[in-house]
Amino acid sequence: MVDDEPVARTILRNYCSHLPEVHIVAECGHALEAKVILSAQPIDLLFLDIHMPVLTGISFVNTLKNRPQIIFTTAYEEYALIAFDLAACDYLLKPFTLERFSVAVDKAKEKRQGSPKRVADTSTPTSQACFFIKADGKIYKIAYADCLYIEAQGNYTKVVTNASTFLPKLAFSALIALLPPDLFIRVHRSFVINKSIEETYFADKHITFRQ
Questions:
Q1: Among the CATH numbers 1.10.1660.10, 2.130.10.10, 1.10.10.60, 2.40.50.1020, which is that of 125-208?
Q2: Does pTM surpass 0.85?
Q3: Buried b (16+ CB within 10 A) or exposed e, 159-186
Q4: CB 56 within 8 A of CB 82
Q5: Which of 35, 40, 60, 198 is the most buried (most CB within 10 A)?
Q6: How far is residue 206's CA from residue 211's CA, in Å, rounded to a whole number?
Q7: How far is Cα 205 from Cα 113, in angstroms, rounded to an integer?
Q8: pLDDT along the chain (211 residues), means of 10
């Protein structure tokens, strides 16, 4: 389990004690600690918070080549679409009950029984060719080929496509963590643009990419 809040880890530990099939391998206060442990000790299931210092849960998952089953445990509902885009087993909103926790574990067990013990990273953005965002109360599917650029705007992130502009309430860092580096490039701390665009303009700045 990975969570920077000791109280949250205590609750998870207590819930796990009610499920005899769940054995806790390690408890981590941040993602970098978990990365070290995972490199030495393969696991079947990872309980993962999202908002943590140094490295978010979303960014951490994107560093894993062979992923265990993942259940996100967080107080932020806006990352649910991204979590499932990463093939998470479940997404638990804090505070959650033992019953809801048990349902999530059952989902992970069923998913593991129907797939290899460790999940290969088949849910990469490049293979999916799209990502999902929620804006104005609706869910939108954005093809990478249609996405021109992404810009940080405070608590929101502007997503500009060939046809529309969206402003989901989503952290810039969380969204760009889903973007394949072979298709997108970060040209500024608040800008990521599509590499396939030959010419693109931002205010008075002219950026040109040529194959």
A1: 2.40.50.1020
A2: no
A3: bbbeeeebebebbbebbbbbbbeeebee
A4: no
A5: 60
A6: 17
A7: 52
A8: 96 95 94 91 93 87 88 90 85 94 93 60 52 84 90 92 90 81 87 78 52 46
CA distance 43 to 22: 11
Return the closest-CA partner of residue 173 out of 62, 28, 72.
62
Is the CA virtual torsion 79, 183, 127, 35 positive or negative? negative
How far apart are the two ends of the chain, measured CA to CA in Å?
44
Three-class SS state of 73: strand
* pLDDT score, position 64: 87
Q: At 13, which amino acid appears?
A: R
CATH topology of domain 6-120: Rossmann fold (3.40.50)
Q: Cβ(173)–Cβ(59) under 8 Å? A: yes
